[in-house]
């Protein structure tokens, strides 16, 4: 490996955006056939770096060499021609086209230059899907009908439909179940065996241990460590490099006493056909209850149905004994429910607006008289809520889009805090939140519970549910298969339940 | 619900001084830059007008005329700005103006005098807005399609009412509003109405819950719904507002022309959309500016006036308008990306 020039060598890459130096002289070497992991907190420069690599951004300084030859990646097409493919976190597929059409988009097999040979496209797509371990995906189906995991496979098939030498994967496992992650890793192993290089971005350190060869850690636009051995570098060191701190998951302590107040939220026989079976649930003030289950087990659907965003086919939800109007978000919010949804940007935030306006949007009537908004009162209350949660930056007038993932999540929590909500529904609260910021978010949630809030938590990360919740409901295929205090469960037990549905002894 | 936010805890340690200058502090300044550049364009137009036709353009009567012409389309644009800010579009404004103006000037309506004409115009506008709003908010129709259908039917109905004839207004109190002796300090009453609508619109958009909710629905309708906003009702109100603005504009047009015609308000939808867009309102929703829209209207009206004074045909005007829209949007993209 030593005498061969690296497949890709980036050196001294710098890129500035107005007001931000996103990359400040980054070096990255990638060898053919290796899995090179890129680690770093949000805002460390990972996205900018892979966009430079994909030809989507032009670097201000620095050089890129491909197989020892200096190259300029003027456009995404130029990068693709060299054999660099990028699978972005936000999938870039056309929903109204079929799988085969998506895979061959831009390089359709044609007769006479313009007549698309659909059958050829479908056959080659089927071959690619088979190679990716998903022969069950029909190349003729519309991409919009597929699950998120299947769409990711299609995205990967598209990358492989080119003669690819290097694939960049941006958090490919974020939307996947454990068994799908296994399949992803198998694909990665196959690719590298063929000499393809993989640049792998993930927040999950354990994945990097499993498949990574080397790790480059980015912090504040610089590579603070390049080419560390992925399997042997101690976690503590990696986290320290990323954050400058020596923390991993730190969960706040549970209160000793059991909450004994009357339940604030009562769910009775709540069900949605085809999504989840009748569910009973009591939630007391001060209590955090976790829902553990795989993607597709009905976790998010349950939360959204309790919240009224989906109309139940049976059952009822009541808050303080008052039954909510089924399928009405306004009724739920009025009774004191608040939801921090899974897709923060798409479902919760007004990205063009300031933190203040994002926080106050659910409580406008509190700051208004006959529709007239008292902006001073609004700002004051938003500022108080934002400080209560130690949201940074401390100035709530900044646009919410400039915040990191963790602070955006705090802005959503501040919205419900300001509303004076009684029951908080958290759907994947730490998705897209970097490791360093998670512990703080956990502490915030626990503190809110200590102040009398009831919290219902959904997470695909089992340690998170076990570490944060007091009581855990394990879901499998829309059914609660086990309920227990969190301290009586461990990760293995929950994973067994989630996969098998049988409470193993 | 009544549980208040507890006072800030001292967890963050020392809190930095609040008023410090950060890059984000420059954000309001960006909006000012946009307003200033629009004002600059308007000033440049006035200079051009003053140079090419010094006697005619800067004449008080001409300036009064320009403002009066701007008033009709201006009122429509204020309503349109709300609709676009909320992520919608209203293609039916011109047709609603036409329908309201002919309905309010029928022989039967004129029997009720001034109030009859005024209220009929506003009610017809509200009625059309109600239909638009119900179709879009509760019928789940795309705004483009629903208001396109309204455009066609309202124009058709206007033609049916008039049978293509111009309906002359014979109410003196209405006609008098357009005459010089009812000007207040040299300002035509129509312009005063426009000014009032503008101020009310600005306040509604920037200082009320209605404005906040409009922006929220336009910025992210799903987030607005999950935040507890009644998105459908808000949409209904927005199209009602646009319809009401059309009704007011129709009344102004009746005063201005002393008649009602089924060809009134032709292509107002395009002028209003164009004015809102060059003013800085995002066509995709989530950001709107009444100040910008009004400046956009004034710019377009001034161009029309200067071209007319210089005997340039309307085809040249159209080309110039198109070029200005393109230039304004390109400049805005530029300034947006450097911020």
Throw out a few tags for this protein.
heterodimer, A: 505 residues, alpha/beta, Rossmann fold, 3 domains, six-stranded mixed β-sheet, 17 helices, B: 339 residues, mainly alpha, ABC transporter involved in vitamin B12 uptake, BtuC, two-stranded antiparallel sheet, 2 strands, 1% strand, globular, disordered N terminus, membrane (chain B), cell membrane (chain B)
Q: How would you portray this structure in words?
A:
The complex is a heterodimer of chains A (505) and B (339). Chain A has 3 domains: 8-243, Rossmann fold (3-Layer(aba) Sandwich), CATH 3.40.50.300; 261-336 and 422-505, 3-Layer(aba) Sandwich (Rossmann fold), CATH 3.40.50.300; 350-419, no CATH class. The longest helix of chain A is centred in the middle third of the chain and has 16 residues, at 178-193. Chain A has 17 helices and 24 strands. In chain A, strand 9, helix 6 and strand 10 form a beta-alpha-beta unit. In chain A, the strands form 6 sheets. A 6-stranded mixed beta sheet of chain A has the order 6-9-10-3-11-12, sandwiched between helices. Chain A has 505 residues and is an alpha/beta fold. In chain A, helix 13 (375-388) crosses helix 14. Chain B has 339 residues and is mainly alpha-helical. Chain B has a single domain, classed as Orthogonal Bundle (ABC transporter involved in vitamin B12 uptake, BtuC), CATH 1.10.3470. Chain B has 15 helices and 2 strands. Chain B has helices at 27-52, 54-57, 60-85, 93-103, 107-110, 113-138, 143-162, 172-176, 189-207, 209-219, 221-226, 231-257, 268-279, 290-309, 314-337; strands at residues 167-168, 259-260. Classes of the chains: A alpha/beta (505), B mainly alpha (339). Chain B: One of its GO terms (cellular component) is plasma membrane. Chain B: It is found in: Cell membrane. Chain B: This is ABC transporter permease. Chain B: It holds the Pfam family BPD_transp_2. Chain B: Keywords: Cell membrane, Membrane, Transmembrane, Transmembrane helix.
């Amino acid at each position: 490996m030593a005498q061969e020039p690296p497949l890709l060598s980036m050196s001294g890459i710098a890129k500035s955006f107005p007001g931000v130096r996103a990359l400040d002289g980054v070096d990255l070497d990638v060898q053919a056939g290796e899995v090179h992991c890129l680690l770093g907190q949000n805002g460390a420069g990972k996205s900018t770096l892979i966009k430079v690599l994909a030809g989507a951004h032009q670097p201000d300084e620095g050089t890129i060499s491909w197989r020892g030859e200096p190259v300029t990646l003027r456009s995404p097409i130029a990068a693709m021609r060299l054999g660099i493919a990028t699978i972005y976190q936000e999938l870039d597929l056309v929903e109204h086209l079929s799988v085969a059409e998506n895979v061959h988009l831009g390089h359709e097999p044609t007769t006479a230059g313009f007549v698309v040979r659909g059958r050829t496209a479908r056959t080659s797509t089927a071959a690619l899907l088979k190679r990716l371990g998903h022969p069950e995906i029909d190349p003729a189906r519309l991409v919009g009908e597929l699950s998120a995991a299947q769409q990711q496979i299609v995205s990967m098939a598209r990358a492989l439909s080119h003669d690819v030498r290097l694939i960049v994967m941006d958090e490919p496992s974020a939307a996947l179940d454990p068994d799908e992650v296994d399949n992803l890793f198998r694909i990665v192993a196959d690719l590298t065996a063929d000499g393809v290089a993989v640049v792998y971005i993930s927040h999950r350190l354990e994945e990097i241990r499993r498949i990574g060869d080397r790790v480059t850690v980015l912090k504040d636009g610089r590579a603070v460590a390049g080419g560390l051995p992925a399997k042997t570098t101690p976690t503590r060191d990696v986290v320290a490099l990323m954050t400058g701190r020596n923390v991993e998951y730190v969960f706040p302590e549970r209160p000793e006493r059991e909450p004994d107040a009357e339940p604030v939220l009562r769910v009775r026989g709540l069900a949605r056909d085809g999504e989840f079976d009748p569910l009973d649930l009591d939630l007391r003030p001060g209590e955090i209850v976790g829902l553990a289950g795989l993607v597709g087990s009905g976790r998010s659907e349950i939360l959204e149905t309790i919240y009224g965003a989906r109309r139940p086919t049976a059952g009822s939800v009541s808050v303080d004994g008052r039954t909510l109007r089924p399928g009405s978000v306004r009724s739920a919010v009025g009774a004191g429910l608040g939801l921090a949804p899974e897709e923060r940007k798409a479902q919760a935030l007004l990205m063009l607006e300031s933190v203040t306006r994002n926080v106050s949007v659910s409580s406008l009537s509190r700051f208004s008289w006959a529709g007239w908004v008292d902006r001073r009162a609004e700002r004051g209350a938003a500022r108080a809520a934002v400080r209560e949660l130690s949201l940074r930056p401390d100035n709530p007038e900044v646009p919410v889009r400039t915040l990191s993932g963790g602070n955006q999540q705090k802005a959503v929590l501040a919205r419900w805090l300001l509303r004076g909500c009684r029951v908080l529904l958290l759907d994947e609260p730490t998705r897209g939140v970097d490791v360093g910021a998670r512990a703080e978010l956990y502490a915030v949630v626990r503190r809110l519970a200590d102040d009398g809030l009831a919290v219902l938590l959904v997470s695909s990360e089992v340690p998170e549910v076990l570490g944060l919740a007091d009581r855990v409901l394990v879901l499998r295929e829309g059914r609660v298969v086990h309920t227990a205090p969190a301290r009586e469960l461990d990760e293995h037990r929950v994973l067994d339940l989630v996969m098998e549905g049988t409470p193993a002894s | 619900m009544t549980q208040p936010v507890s006072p800030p805890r001292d967890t963050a340690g020392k809190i930095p001084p609040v008023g410090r200058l950060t890059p984000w502090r420059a954000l309001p300044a960006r909006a000012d830059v946009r307003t200033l550049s629009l004002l600059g364009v308007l000033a440049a137009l006035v200079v051009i007008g003053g140079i090419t036709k010094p006697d005619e353009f800067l004449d008080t009567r001409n300036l009064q005329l320009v403002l009066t012409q701007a008033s009709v389309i201006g009122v429509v644009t204020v309503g349109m700005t709300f609709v676009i800010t909320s992520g919608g579009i209203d293609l039916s404004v011109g047709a609603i103006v036409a329908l309201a103006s002919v309905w309010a000037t029928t022989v039967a309506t004129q029997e009720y005098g001034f109030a009859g004409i005024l209220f009929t115009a506003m009610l017809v506008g509200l009625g059309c807005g109600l239909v638009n709003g119900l179709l879009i908010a509760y019928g789940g129709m795309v705004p483009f399609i629903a208001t396109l259908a309204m455009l066609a039917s309202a124009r058709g109905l206007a033609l049916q009412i008039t049978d293509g004839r111009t309906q002359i207004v014979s109410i003196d109190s209405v006609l008098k509003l357009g005459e010089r002796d009812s000007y207040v300090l040299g300002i035509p009453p129509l312009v005063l109405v426009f000014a009032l609508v503008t101020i009310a619109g600005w306040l509604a958009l920037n200082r009320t819950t209605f404005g906040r909710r409009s922006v929220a629905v336009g910025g992210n309708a799903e987030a607005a719904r999950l935040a507890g906003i009644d998105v459908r009702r808000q949409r209904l109100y927005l199209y009602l507002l646009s319809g009401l603005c059309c009704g007011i504009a129709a009344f102004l047009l009746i005063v201005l022309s002393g008649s009602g015609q089924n060809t009134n308000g032709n292509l107002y939808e395009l002028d209003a959309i164009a004015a809102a867009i060059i003013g800085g309102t995002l066509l995709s929703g989530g950001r709107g500016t009444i100040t910008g829209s009004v400046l956009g209207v004034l710019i377009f009206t001034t161009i029309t006036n200067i071209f007319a004074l210089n005997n340039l045909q309307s085809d040249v005007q159209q080309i110039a308008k198109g070029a200005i829209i393109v230039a304004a949007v390109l400049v805005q993209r530029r300034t947006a990306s450097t911020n």
